[in-house]
């Protein structure tokens, strides 16, 4: 059965369906609904941006982009974006996608918290960030029609989303605080983790191994 939300057709290949079921069954409702909204808003924003991302690759990128925040995908050794990206790449390899296609999805996820840069890259990478920025930060909401926003949130509601996603971020980062250096993620820990002190870039330079 074809599923269409806000005029956006949801990919229904076996791979896409399995990916959605995997994220739904192994993460939690917050991540699942957010990830589907990222795909929908990313697709809608693509139209406003004049780009045409590969629909299925965008869907996979959106579904997996925050998987690294939660078990069983959450690690402690690297940024959560990399845990998420590595998980997506492993999934895609089981379906025999090319290295080039997997790399696009990996990069879309790895860079989805990096401002500006994704918009200069492949449309899948740009659209993933656009979807994230719309749902989490409310950026470019005025580019979307109210009936589109209503249609998306009717299927994937976001009650108390601001507080819940911030809590998910805090839980996802607190066991690997050093990985937030140089990222927006450090802001979350500074707000929610008592005693956390971000690494200061200026101090890193001044205290480097160079003798001068």
Short description:
Helices cover 58% and strands 2% of the residues.
Structure report:
Helix 2 packs antiparallel against helix 7 (146-155) and helix 4 runs antiparallel to helix 5. The protein has a two-stranded antiparallel sheet with strand order 1-2. With 212 residues, it is mostly helical. The chain has helices spanning 14-26, 29-49, 55-64, 80-94, 99-110, 123-137, 146-155, 161-173, 185-192, 201-206, and strands spanning 4-5, 8-9.
List the helices and strands and how they pair.
Layout lengths: L3 E2 L2 E2 L4 H13 L2 H21 L5 H10 L15 H15 L4 H12 L12 H15 L8 H10 L5 H13 L11 H8 L8 H6 L6
Antiparallel strand pairs: 1-2
Helix pairs in contact: 1-3, 2-3, 2-6, 2-7, 3-5, 3-6, 4-5, 5-6, 8-9
Task: Give keywords.
2% strand, 2 strands, 212 residues, globular, two-stranded antiparallel ribbon, mainly alpha, Hypothetical protein af1432, single chain
Query: What proportion of the residues is helical, as a percent range?
Result: 55-70%
Strand order of the largest sheet: 1-2
Task: State the CATH superfamily name.
Answer: Hypothetical protein af1432
Give the SSE string: EEHHHHHHHHHH
Count the E strands. 2
- The CATH class designation is Mainly Alpha
Q: Poorly predicted ranges (pLDDT <50, ≥5 residues)?
A: none
Shape: globular
Structural class: mainly alpha
First and last CA, distance: 67 Å
User: Which architecture would the CATH scheme give at its second level?
Assistant: Orthogonal Bundle
Strand content: under 5%
Rg value: 18 Å
Sheet with most strands: 2 strands, antiparallel
Oligomer: single chain
What integer is the average pLDDT?
96
Q: What is the tally of helical segments?
A: 10
Q: What is the CATH third-level topology name?
A: Hypothetical protein af1432
Q: What is the total domain count?
A: 1
